[in-house]
From TrEMBL:
One of its GO terms (cellular component) is membrane. This is Malectin-like domain-containing protein. Residues 1-19 form the signal peptide. Pfam families: LRR_8, Malectin_like. It is found in: Membrane. Its main location: membrane.
């Protein structure tokens, strides 16, 4: 049973590796700020794309040469960055390409400042995944490589926003964005609820002092080398690459090496101190201990140990099996009184050998609770944005979070339901062309201000279908009459409608002579039009009088 499950996932993974573009299906790799539109990465063999088309703002910058020459061959993505000197929130829009809800993804954002702006001030800024705060990016030094990674279920299969938010500590920037589907039948890195953000992923006693990733790791996790001091004794096996994998699919080169405690210096126990002081304070940590026995023990030898976190015994006694990967998961709430997490692997009394550890991952649980804007509203406003090539800084989710509401939009926020767009003000926004039918897709709209643009054509009847609409301002455009009667009816029924006089002019055969706005007014007056509206729509009268004075 276990075996057949393993084969199933192995086959699935094999299938994934057959994607287009050199990339396994659903893998998306973006080299932010790259000047090459695409290239094949030497280490992974993945095709990396430039971020053209994934973001609308920011500028390409190059890190300074002194840092560029220090990069390993598998770190090409750090050579360029995209920097965002303008605006508070700037976003990337990705599409989870497997396209069915229920697929988990791992997303990774990578940052290396590299003094690209010659300011020698490594910035700190916030990162959002969609509408939710993800983490703070603290770059600290020009040479630091910062990775933010999270395993999550996308809220929508239509779009995935990754947003960088300027918090007043330098301009946000980004080096790379990597999206990986996590197709494992929900077997690994499962949390009760929420998503798992990576805190640390370490290869203890690394065979080479370099980050390991794809192709060694089918999931393209990044394994950071963790080199211990003389309190740790490095051990390894020469028994080749054949360490039996479990569902976590740890690469053999990671499992082939491990640390034991240096019993001459300390005692028989292996301690790991985790300092989360610079990360947002999560409530729950998930620990993944990966181990395999890599020494051939004699008959009279044994290795047995317990795992405890902050003094709480979480597992044991455990006996690693020779050349077989075993993964043990522990959760721990919070830190000790010293602000740190103390992990101990302690030898049991019966054990002749000290504990060992091959690899360790620490995640923190994060709950993404913010609601995204109603999908139909998102589609409508996106269509409006592209129809008129709106040049406002309209990025990420339109309504959420509230602090980053799109300029010109008003939204309603109702507890557990999706925010809805209830007002749209595109006055003086340089709009050309006819009034787009997409406006009528914003079905909750209460106010629409399109005044002072160059909109042409007639006023469309579909605007009358917006049943909540109370304010409609179309003044100072190049619109023509006639005004649809349905809209006129609405204006008798509480809609404050503002249009230029000439639009009114076409209600019945207009004056064919040399027409001015005042002749249109005369005409309207003759038709008792204004009079009939006075009682119900003060706003309209006000606008009308103003335009003709
Ligand atoms: C994984 O979990 C999600 C959410 O609970 C579910 O929609 C999906 O069907 C699951 N996938 C598999 C393969 O079980
Ligand atoms: C494995 O251990 C031996 C000593 O026991 C050492 O000489 C060798 O360099 C180690 N190899 C690796 C890859 O760590
Ligand atoms: C273990 O500790 C002793 C005493 O400090 C030291 O001489 C030895 O080099 C250490 N072993 C390793 C592998 O660092
Ligand atoms: C790996 O295991 C297979 C059998 O499972 C064996 O034939 C092969 O020699 C092993 N390779 C190494 C390098 O140990
Ligand atoms: C936390 O941030 C401070 C200030 O940037 C830095 O000095 C310190 O080394 C950081 N601590 C850790 C554990 O990263
Ligand atoms: C195990 O037996 C070997 C001899 O076969 C001996 O040298 C060694 O000290 C013994 N180890 C332990 C822990 O008793
Ligand atoms: C240790 O275990 C106790 C009892 O299960 C629990 O109340 C406490 O929160 C745990 N402490 C940590 C640091 O996990
Ligand atoms: C594990 O060992 C350390 C160091 O020897 C000790 O401080 C700690 O109390 C031990 N933990 C348990 C649960 O025995
Ligand atoms: C430890 O050894 C004692 C005696 O040698 C034995 O009775 C006991 O079952 C062992 N305990 C474990 C956990 O193996
Ligand atoms: C739209 O915005 C302009 C300023 O940009 C403002 O004068 C006008 O009152 C707004 N319209 C509505 C309906 O709020
Ligand atoms: C109308 O728009 C133009 C630019 O499109 C702007 O210069 C002007 O100030 C706007 N007028 C009003 C009244 O907002
Ligand atoms: C409108 O009439 C004025 C004089 O009353 C004349 O100067 C102007 O050319 C006419 N315009 C058009 C478009 O006929």
């Amino acid at each position: 049973m276990v075996l057949s499950k393993y084969f199933l996932f192995a086959t699935l993974l094999m299938a994934l590796v057959q994607g287009d573009d050199n990339n396994p299906t659903g893998f998306l790799s973006i080299d932010c700020g790259s000047l090459d539109s695409s290239y094949v990465d030497e280490t992974t063999g993945f095709t990396y794309h430039s971020d053209e088309g994934f973001t609308e703002t920011g500028e390409n910058r190059e890190i300074v040469n002194a840092y560029k020459v220090q990069l390993q061959t598998n770190e090409r993505q750090f050579r360029n960055v995209r920097s965002f000197p303008e605006g508070i929130r700037n976003c990337y829009t990705l599409k989870p390409t497997l396209g069915d809800q229920g697929t988990r993804y791992m997303i990774r954002a990578r940052f290396m400042y590299g003094n690209y702006d010659n300011e020698n001030l490594a910035p700190t800024f916030d990162l959002y995944l969609g509408v939710d705060f993800w983490d703070t990016v603290l770059t600290q030094h020009a040479w630091n490589r910062v990775n933010k990674e999270i395993i999550f279920f996308p809220k929508s299969d239509d779009h995935l926003y990754v947003c960088l938010v300027n918090t007043g500590h330098g301009f946000p920037f980004i080096s790379a964005l990597e999206l990986r589907p996590w197709v494992d039948g929900n077997q690994t890195y499962v949390s009760k609820s929420g998503s798992l953000g990576l805190f640390q992923r370490s290869d203890l006693n690394p065979a080479i002092d370099q980050v390991m990733r794809y192709k060694e790791d089918v999931y393209d996790r990044l394994w950071s080398p963790l080199t211990g001091d003389n309190r740790f004794v490095p051990i390894n096996t020469t028994k080749g690459n054949n360490i039996t994998k479990n569902i976590y699919q740890l690469p053999s080169p990671i499992m082939r090496t491990a640390y034991e405690p240096n019993i001459t210096i300390h005692d028989d126990n292996l301690g790991i101190l985790i300092d989360p002081s610079n990360s947002s304070a999560p409530l729950l940590y998930y620990f993944y201990f990966h181990f395999a026995e890599i020494q051939e023990l004699r008959k009279n030898e044994s290795r047995e140990f317990t795992i405890s976190i902050n003094g709480n015994l979480t597992h044991g006694p455990l006996v690693p099996i020779y050349l077989v990967t075993n993964t043990v998961i522990s959760t721990s709430g919070g830190t000790n009184s010293d602000g740190k997490i103390h992990v101990w692997l302690n030898r049991t009394q019966n054990s002749t050998k000290p504990p060992l550890l091959n690899a360790l991952e620490v995640y923190w649980l994060t709950e993404f609770t913010q609601q995204e804007t109603n999908q139909a509203d998102v589609n409508a406003i996106q269509n409006i944005k592209s129809a008129y090539q709106v040049t406002k800084n309209w990025q990420g989710d339109p309504c959420a979070p509230k602090a980053f509401l799109w300029d010109g939009l008003g939204c309603s926020y109702g507890g557990n339901s999706s925010p809805r767009i209830i007002s749209l003000n595109l006055s003086s926004s340089g709009l050309n062309g006819v009034i787009s039918p997409y406006f009528s897709d914003l079905t909750m709209l209460q106010a629409l201000d399109l005044s002072n643009n160059s909109l042409s054509g007639t006023v469309p009847e579909f605007l009358a279908n917006l049943s909540s609409l109370r304010i409609l301002n179309l003044k100072k455009n190049k619109l023509e009459g006639p005004l649809p009667s349905a809209l006129l009816e609405r204006s008798n029924d509480g809609l404050s409608l503002s249009v230029d006089a000439n639009v009114m002019g076409n209600l019945t055969p207009p004056p064919t002579t040399n027409q001015t706005s005042s002749s249109a007014e005369d005409w309207c007056r003759k038709n008792k039009f204004v009079v009939s509206l006075v009682a119900s729509v003060e706003a309209f009268l006000l606008q009308f009088v103003l335009s003709t004075s």
